[in-house]
Each structure stands twice: as C-alpha cells, then as structure tokens.
Write a sequence for this structure.
C-alpha cells in the first residue's frame, strides 16, 4: 500500500499575531467554524474514495489555531477521516494548539480522537516579547498548558520557539531555551522571526518603529539555539527542527522527502501522483461548494521540477540527499543532470557551504545560513 | 518662373516637442483627402512606433498633397516633416532648405520654447516665410492673445493673423491651408538648367535600395539618367523617380521646384548623405548647393551583448540600424569586463537612447551600454594629437601634455522661478554663463558655455527634474578647450572593471567616484565574501564602499507543504543570478551599468 500524509487546515485564530502571513482569520465565530467543519467533512468524504490504495500514516491538523475549535468538532473531523480513508493504527496524528486555547476537556477530546502528538506555539517564555508579537498567552500559561497536556497523556509534544524578535537579546533567548528544555518536550522547532510583507509587523518596520536583528545576531542566536538543545540531548534533523532520538516529525519529513500528501481545507497544498495542486483560499466559496471547489492550482511535475524539488527540499534535512536516490527517482545521475551548474556547485563545495560525503550531499553549517542561495542552483 | 511652379507650395512644420506637429500634419493630410479617415493611423508622418510613443519625429517623411483652395485652383503641397530634437539640428536645417515656407506651431498654453526658437532661427537662416499657428486652442488654459504677443516679441514676426487651431479637434485647419497658399512663395528655378537637387533625407528599402528624398532647384531628372552625388563623385543610374502621396508613386520626371524621390540602386544610406547635391553626370552643375556637412558623432558608448545574447545577433541588428541612419557609427571593440562588443557613435544623447531602445524593442535584444563619452583631444608631449572617446584608450598620463574637451553653447529656456536652481545645476556642471535674458515677464533664456561631457552625463534629466518638465535645452558644439580631465576607474574586489571607467573633470572626480561606489553598493547583492568597491585615479583611491558578506539567506520555516511557493522564490533567485555579469569573483546585475549614469535628485 502506498503511504499518504494528510494535512487539515483550520484557518481560524483568536487573534492574528503581528508577524503572521498564514491563511488564517481572527474574525470567525461559532457559526462560521461549524460551517467550515461541515464543508471539511464533505470534502473529506468526497476525496476519500480516490485514495483507496493509500494508507494514511500521518495526519497533521494545522492552522491557524486548530485548538480554537470545540473538542467535539475535532473529534468529528478525525472520525470522518477514518471513515473515508484508511488510517494506519500507528499513524502519527498531530494537532497544533496554542496555549490559551487548551482546556482539559479539549485535550481529552483530542485523546479520544486518537491524536497522539501536540504541537504548541509557545514562541517565547518572555512575557514582554510575547505581548510584543501579539500572542494571547503568557509564559506561565504556556507552562500550564504543557503540563496539562502531559497530564492528559500526551507523550509526544513539540514546542515552537522563535528568535530574532525585535529587541531580542541573547540572554532572553537563552532563558527561553532553558525554559523549554526544562519541560523536556520531545521535539522543538526553532526559527527566526521573518518580517513578511502585508503583516502589521512589516508595516511597523516600514515606519521605522524597530530595528530588526542583524544577520549576524540572527545567526548567532540560531547557533546558540542548536548548541543548547544539542547539549540537552536533542538531535537536529532539519534546518529548523530538533527532536529527541526517534521523535522526529514524520509528517514534516514527508515534505522534505518528496513523499505524497493530501491537504484538506482551504489553502492546502497537496502532492500526489507527481502532481502539485492546491485548494481555494476563498472560505465563502469553499463553504458554499461544500468543500468541493475545484483546485485553485494544478501542476504536473516535470523531471526538472522533480529534480529541483528533490534537491532543495532534501537539503533542508540534516542528512541531506542521497545521490543514488536522486538517480533512481530522476532517471539521470546527479552529475549528469546538473552538468551546466557544475561550476556553481563547485563554488559552494569549495567554499565549504555544501558537503559531498560518499553518496550524500548536504549543507554545512555555514551553507545552512545561506541555504536559499545554494538551493537556487538546483531549481 | 515656369507656370507649373505657381501652384506648388513646399513647406515644413516646425515646433517644440509635444506642441502638436504630427497631429497637425495628420489633420492636413486628412483635410486634403489624401488618406481616407479610416485608414489614418494617428500621426501619419511618424511611422516608427518608438517615435509615436515618444511623441517625437526622428526620421523624416515627406508627402505630396493636393489642395483645392478657395480661389478655385488646385495646389500641390509638399509637406516636409522635420525631426523635432536637439540632436538632429543638421537634418532639420536640410529639410528646411528644401522649403520656401514653414508653419511654426506654438502651443497656446505653453508659449515659445527654446526648441521653437532654435528651429525658427534655422528657418530664418534659410530665408523661409514663417507662418505662425497657435495650437491647442481648445484647452481651457489656452492664452492665444498673450502667446501672440510673445511670438511677436520673441521672434519678431507678425502673429496678428495667426490661425487659431486645435489639431486634435480639427479646428482651424482650413485657415492654415489657405495661409500656406497665400503666404508661402511658390518655388522658382530653371527647369532647363543643369540639375541641382538637394538630398534632405534617405532611407533603405530592401527592394529598391536607398530611396533618396530630393528637392530640385534647377533642371530635371528621369529614369535612365546617370546622376552624380557631388560629395563623393559617385555615379548611379536612376531606376525610378516619383513622389509620396503617401505611398510611392512613380512619375515620368521630377522638375525644378518639385519634391520627390529618386531610386538609383544605391547600396547604403551613407552613400546618399543628407545635404549632398545630386546632379547629372552628363551635364553637371558647377557649384554644389551650400550647407553640406558630414554627420559627426558627438557622443560615444560601448554596446555589449547582455548575458545570453549573441555577439552576431547584436552586430546584425546594428548593421540594420546603420543602413537607415547615416549618423550612427559602430565598430567592434573588446572590453576585458564585458567581452566582445561595439563602440558606437551618436549625434547626441537622445540619438543614443533611441538606438539602444530600438535594439531592445524592435530586435528584442538585451544589451549593456557603458558610460557615454565625448571625444577628447589628447595632445601628447611630443606634440602629436590623439582623439580619444573610449576612456580605456586614454594614453599613459606621463605622455600627455594636456587634454582638451568639447564645449557646447547651451541655450536653456525656463520659467523665471527656476532661474536660481538651474543656474546652480549649470554651475555645478562647470557651465559658464554668457548672458541671461528675460524673453517675456515670466520666461528666461540662459546662455551658457558648458562642457559637452557634463551635458551628456545627466544635465538634461536634471533640467527636466528641477523645472518639472518646463525647461528646454538646445545645444551645439563650439570649440575644444583645455581641461583638467582625468580617467577614473572602478575596482570591484580589487579588480579593475574597464566598462565602468570614465573620463571626468578633476573637480568632479571625488563626488562622481563616491556616487558610483554608493550606487554599486546598493545594486551589487551580498556575496559569500566582502566586496570592496573602489574608485581610483591612477593608483590613488578616491572613494570606497564595501558590500558586506552574505551572512543569512535562509527560510526558517516552510509552511505546510507549499513547495511551489518556495520553489518560485528559488527560481526567481536563480533567474536574477542569470542576469548577472561575472567580473572576477563578483557578480554584478546588468542594471548597474545604467544606474551609475542616472541623475539622482537627492545627490
């Protein structure tokens, strides 16, 4: 049986964070939530039959803030998925949850839905910084939520942490890291704040209200993050992710390994049968069409697409890519396929940004810092 | 006078850019019924897209029209259009020499401009009858009475009865035509005399060879005649004569006083130069017509194929352009930075911009142009003289006694409120004020002598920018003058990039050097290493900037499987890289070459 990852998008939040450019709205109410869930159930039911020869081995309910929904709604979503897809018993099933939206009741409902992994958007353990970036919770609430999840039986929890927040100092970042380590989550994502166009943070930046962290500070915080977490027993497996051994996010790894995944809900991106497609981002239309709005984008990958994507997504992983695997998937040996890029590639290997070790090509530490420049060679 | 000449009127339209010359020409053609209205393209005479877009005429088109006047007689109008820009003064003067009269269009909202005056003087030089016309009379801001006074005051011609027209709306066109009949003198000339014809334009036709536009002053010419072009003494057999109405119409012969075309299997436009005299080989005229000048390039620059463009393709395109443009020259040159390319000569900056734009648009080519330069007269210590237009070729300073640079007379016309700021930019560009006059209460003309080098750098842009477009400029070469100019080089990561080298006046070198370094710092993306950017004169570094090393270019978190978005970003990044030029270890975006030349309001 072929394996499939399922992504379910819940485009609602209680409040938009100032840096967020994801597809999510804080203007929803209970009625809209329920209408959306119904459309989602209908989309799931409609799509399920086409995936008869797949086993779903990961599910990721992301957002937005999926935990704004009632526990019962999540339960219905999961039951519905199980009804229309064949979900592996051992499947990794993750839900994103923000401290401040979690209750014991909800956590119990998640458990009943067989959700076995929680991803918590903690971002920081500094109340001043949390307020600054528009988070609705305090550090204390984050800790409480974490412990509550533990008590509810969740033994696989991720914490999202953010650095390069305006005004971030190394000390504050170190405090956050230490606080996170003290909780002993199985997985930690660490990423630098990006100032995305169209966000309130961007507008504030344009008005000159803050000075973003310098590239040098950003990289140094990143290094501090990795070394602190490594010292605490975490292993890096992707540019922004570390985990205790064996606790890597299987769902996320699918994105970096050209594995197949299907997205449900608005704005979701899928990669199935060598085709990338995405859902509409128009929630009104999605609800009106009962989740059956035709794909907003649809693209059958060429060999060139596959080669580029295999390399650049693979390079996000610490282990990098296998050249044998490249040749098996693409049908042409790596060296031959990238003959015209040879000089560029050599520039990066000679400069210590890319490392070729036997069969594996991977980014070095400095290569990671400028990974976009390196990856762009291969697309 | 021969009787057929009584009913011929040869005239031009002269005007400042945008004052409506082409639109009026369109209306005249329409009114005389030559072209059915439905066949009219806007602005018939400007037949190149580029001209239409810029609203200026580069290449002349001449048309023969029939007009039934109010006196009941039919007249032949030869409407000779003129190019409307400062770079084409000579061509304008030759077109005017083919006429007896000129319609002077003055925008009734804007009044007389420097360009208008310059053209009027050219017309007066040719003893033409000048018929003033006020255009754009339909606009609410039209001030016809005031402008009439201005014309009388400035030009010294009677504007009392000047027709009030709106070429756009078709108002008053008939008045203009009647004015032409009454006031433009008919041509004279001896039809039985020796052939004496003025070439005022030519273009290349792939079937007929070069088609030469002529005005016959004496004699006649027909198919089969052997003609001689007097500047080169080359002979050709006439294969066809005729006129444009507006398509080519073959005629039995052309006679004294008439305007038309001659085809004679001439291979290149440069063999039939504007201003040259055509005569019959068997019975030549003794004296050629006065006023012939070889076209002279005043501005030069390197044109190089951009990344991914072939040298041969660029060469073919340049050849095609040259066939139709006797004033444009090019020859192969090599730059260590840019590889194989061409050194090109132009009449002026606009001419250069037009050629570059045509390469890009008509031929769909990507090219890099280097800093425009003028010709410097380099007097060596041994007394010999070298004319240098490529900074790279400037000899070792030790062997140079002194350098002379071309000086132009610049006439600048501006509304009086800008006098202060314009005097400032003139002074800043080493201009010497000769005098200043109030043309009217609100308009001022500044007469300056200025190095051409400064004019071509960014003066025109600065003038336009400082006067919100109301300033106009006319310039002509007057002499060479001793000058303290130096060669300034640009080094990227310690390597000299010859394509950035320029010759500048000593007093400007520091400022220019700083400007170029700052611009390059803005444009050159961060690399994996630090890049020093230096401007130097000889061994001496006069300005320096540094592009810091790339420390971070990483997407921290990738959102739920949206690989396409990430891929698009990477593809864009790669595409950007392709448009870069590699100089040693440094990659420079192509726009860097133009950016260092652009006028910057903030500087």
């Amino acid at each position: 049986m072929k394996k499939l990852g399922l992504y379910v998008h819940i485009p609602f939040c209680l409040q938009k964070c100032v840096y967020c450019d994801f597809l999510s709205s804080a203007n929803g109410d209970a009625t809209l939530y329920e209408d959306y869930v119904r459309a989602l159930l209908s989309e799931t039911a409609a799509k399920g039959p086409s995936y008869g020869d797949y086993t779903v081995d990961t599910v990721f309910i992301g957002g937005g803030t999926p935990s704004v929904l009632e526990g019962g709604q999540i339960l219905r979503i999961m039951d519905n998925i199980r009804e229309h897809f064949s979900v592996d018993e051992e499947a990794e099933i993750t839900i994103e949850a923000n401290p401040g939206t979690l209750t014991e009741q909800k956590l119990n409902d998640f458990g009943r839905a067989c959700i076995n992994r929680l991803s918590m958007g903690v971002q920081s353990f500094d109340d001043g910084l949390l307020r600054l970036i528009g988070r609705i919770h305090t550090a204390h609430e984050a800790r409480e939520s974490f412990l509550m999840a533990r008590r509810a039986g969740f033994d696989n929890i991720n914490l999202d942490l953010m650095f390069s927040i305006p005004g971030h100092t190394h000390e504050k970042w170190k405090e956050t890291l230490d606080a996170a380590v003290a909780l002993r989550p199985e997985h930690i994502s660490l990423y630098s704040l990006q100032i995305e166009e169209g966000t309130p943070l961007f507008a504030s930046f344009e008005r000159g209200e803050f000075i973003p962290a310098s590239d040098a500070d950003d990289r140094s915080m990143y290094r501090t993050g990795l070394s602190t977490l490594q010292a605490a027993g975490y292993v890096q497996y992707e540019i922004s992710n570390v985990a205790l051994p064996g606790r890597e996010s299987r769902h996320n790894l699918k994105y970096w390994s050209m594995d197949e995944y299907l997205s449900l809900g608005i704005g979701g991106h899928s990669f199935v049968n060598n085709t990338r497609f995405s859902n509409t981002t128009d929630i009104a239309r999605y609800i009106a069409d009962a989740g059956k709005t035709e794909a907003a984008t649809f693209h059958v990958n060429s060999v060139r697409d596959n080669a580029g994507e295999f390399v650049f997504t693979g390079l996000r992983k610490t282990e990098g890519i296998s050249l044998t695997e490249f040749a098996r998937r693409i049908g042409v040996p790596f060296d031959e396929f990238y003959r015209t890029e040879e000089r560029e590639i050599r520039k990066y290997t000679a400069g210590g940004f890319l490392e070729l070790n036997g069969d594996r090509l991977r980014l070095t530490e400095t290569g990671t810092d400028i990974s976009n420049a390196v990856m762009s060679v291969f697309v | 006078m021969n009787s057929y000449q009584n009913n011929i009127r040869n005239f031009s339209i002269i005007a400042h850019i945008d004052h409506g010359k082409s639109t009026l020409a369109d209306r005249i053609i329409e009114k005389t019924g030559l072209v059915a209205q439905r066949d009219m393209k806007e602005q018939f005479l400007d037949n190149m897209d580029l001209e239409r877009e810029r609203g200026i005429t580069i290449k002349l088109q001449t048309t023969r029209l029939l007009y039934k006047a109010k006196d009941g007689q039919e007249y032949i109008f030869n409407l000779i259009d003129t190019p409307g820009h400062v770079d084409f003064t000579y061509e304008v003067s030759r077109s005017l020499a083919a006429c007896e009269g000129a319609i002077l269009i003055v925008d009734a909202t804007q009044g007389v401009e420097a360009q208008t005056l310059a053209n009027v003087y050219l017309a007066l030089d040719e003893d033409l009858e000048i018929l003033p016309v006020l255009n754009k009379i339909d606009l609410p801001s039209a001030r016809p009475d005031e402008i009439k006074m201005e014309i009388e005051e400035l030009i010294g011609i009677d504007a009392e009865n000047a027709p009030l027209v709106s070429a756009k709306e078709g108002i008053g066109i008939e008045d203009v035509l009647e004015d032409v009949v009454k006031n433009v003198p008919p041509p004279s000339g001896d039809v039985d005399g020796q052939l004496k014809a003025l070439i005022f334009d030519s273009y290349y036709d792939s079937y007929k060879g070069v088609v030469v536009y002529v005005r016959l002053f004496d004699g006649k010419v027909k198919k089969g005649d052997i003609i001689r072009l007097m500047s080169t003494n080359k002979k050709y057999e006439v294969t066809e004569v005729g006129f444009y109405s507006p398509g080519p119409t073959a005629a039995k012969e052309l006679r004294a006083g008439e305007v038309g075309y001659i085809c004679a299997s001439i291979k290149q436009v440069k063999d039939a130069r504007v201003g040259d005299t055509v005569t019959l080989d068997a019975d030549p005229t003794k004296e050629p017509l006065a006023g012939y000048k070889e076209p002279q390039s005043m501005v030069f620059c390197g044109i190089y194929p951009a990344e991914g463009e072939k040298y041969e393709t660029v060469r073919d395109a340049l050849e095609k352009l040259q066939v139709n443009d006797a004033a444009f020259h090019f020859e192969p040159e090599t730059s260590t930075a840019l590889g194989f390319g061409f050194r090109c000569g132009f009449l002026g900056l606009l001419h250069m911009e037009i050629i570059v734009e045509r390469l890009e648009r008509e031929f769909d080519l990507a090219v890099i142009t280097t800093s425009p330069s003028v010709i410097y007269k380099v007097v060596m210590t041994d007394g010999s003289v070298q004319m240098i237009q490529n900074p790279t070729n400037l000899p070792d300073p030790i062997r140079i006694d002194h350098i002379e640079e071309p000086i132009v007379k610049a006439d600048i016309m501006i509304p009086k409120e800008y006098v202060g700021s314009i005097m400032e930019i003139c002074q800043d560009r080493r201009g010497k004020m000769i005098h200043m006059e109030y043309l009217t209460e609100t308009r001022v003309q500044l007469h300056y002598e200025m190095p051409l080098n400064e004019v071509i750098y960014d003066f025109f842009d600065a003038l336009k920018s400082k006067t919100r477009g109301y300033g106009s400029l006319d310039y002509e070469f007057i002499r060479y003058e001793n000058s303290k100019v130096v060669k300034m080089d640009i080094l990227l990561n310690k390597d000299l990039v010859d394509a950035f080298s320029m010759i500048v006046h000593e007093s400007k070198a520091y400022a220019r050097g700083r400007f170029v370094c700052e611009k390059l710092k803005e444009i050159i993306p961060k690399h994996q290493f630090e890049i020093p950017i230096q401007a130097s004169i000889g061994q001496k570094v006069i300005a320096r900037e540094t592009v810091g090393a790339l420390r971070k270019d990483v997407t921290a978190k990738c959102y739920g499987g949206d690989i396409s978005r990430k891929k698009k970003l990477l593809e864009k990044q790669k595409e950007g890289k392709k448009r870069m030029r590699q100089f040693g270890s440094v990659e420079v975006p192509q726009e860097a070459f133009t950016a260092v030349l652009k006028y910057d309001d903030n500087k």
